[in-house]
Amino acid sequence: MNLINETSHSRTYQKNDLIIKYEFNGQRARWDDIMGVEKKKQKPANISEEDFLTKLFDDLSEVQQDQFFYYLTQDFMTMRREEKLSARTYEEDSVLLKNCNEYFGHIKNYNNLEFDDVHNILKKIEEERGVDKRNRVKKKMQQLLDFALTKKQYNVRHNPLKAHPSTKPVPKAEKQKVGYFELELPAGVNNQHHPIKRLIREADNPTDRLLIILLAYTGARINEIRQLTWDDIVQPRNEHAHLKIKNSKIKPSDVGRKDEYRKIDLNDNFLAELLFQKKRLLGDKEMTYKEKVHSETRKADKSEDNRWRWILQTPQGYSFSDRGIRNRYLKLWAKVYDKYHNDEEYPFNYPRNPKGYGFHAFRRFYVCNFRHRLGDQFTKVKEEQLQQFIGHTIGSQVTASVYTKFDQDQLVKKRVNTEIDPGFI
After folding, report:
1. How does pLDDT run across 202-246, given as a tens digit for each residue?
2. What is the pTM of this model?
3. What angle do CA 330, 333, 337 make, to 5 degrees?
4. Cα atoms in the Cβ-side hemisphere of radius 13 Å centred on 406
5. Alpha carbon of 269 to those of 214, 241, 276: distances in Å?
6. Are residues 299 and 280 in contact, defined by beta-carbon separation less than 8 angstroms?
């Protein structure tokens, strides 16, 4: 420790980034912790000033190193809350920061972190959790240290993670399986055997039935469907009824944007089904819920003001949590599998665990069915309408490259190449 200032009342010492002021009157030390809060400690009578300060510097250095990651992440998440992130993004950040703490939290001084040190940590994450997790933890840790660079109290002078590639290609075996529901069943097979039709038929309660119907008929994301209320079924006088869906990709801070909500027209059968299931769910119950803004969240909304307002609701009238609605789907899928996987007329040719056939499979089905039904009338204008329906940016390549399964056999049946015979032979 070095003496950096002395007066008639005190001496001030520094060791590395720690500064302690020792006061003669009262024989006590004062310093600021990592968050700038003033602390003090009385010197015991049986030790010298030098021994007291030497031990105090050592203890504080260890405490600050142990608390560094905790205080940094708390400060970082406070900043993230001020950015008005969606609840889901905030929760995902929290999970990733726990992963960051698991692999990087033991580091005492990030300024001394070498390239090989970071490489070994990232390699360990990849071996234990996979490439995708390695990429996401690396990105979040880099973001965290960039934030620390803006705060003097953390004494981070550079970001050692920037020297490493931001992402590594995720191996095909590690990527999530993507499945596509059949658009049409083989000739001679009744449409009653379609997997989605079977799911709807075996849904023996209004909530499960509404879940499958909304997924198949809207192409909406599951979080958007979970947030639907009965008021989102709009029936204007002398106009077509439509469903108003809040775009989950719009941040809370973007309220008022013209694309905050999108509308999907409801045909007569779809509308009648929604209203029939509403009657089954609520009966003659008087609706007492209050209209109020609700935020996207993965957790259930158990506010009394919002009770009974949800289209997908628990028996108690509350919204479903993300896990709750997924568990219902898993049970329904298993029920259909057990009943039809050995069906004599048309077996259920899907696994009992719907890996690849989760909620997003219905979104892919909606896109593929949209294109399939329109056939040659699927023009650029229709593609833009499709993108509006599903909440994609107009002109996005994702709609075709990720959500669409192209059928080469259809091209052969239509004899498209035959029609462009150049006439040379």
Report:
1. 999 999 999 999 999 999 999 899 999 999 999 988 888 999 998
2. 0.64
3. 135
4. 7
5. 13, 11, 10
6. no
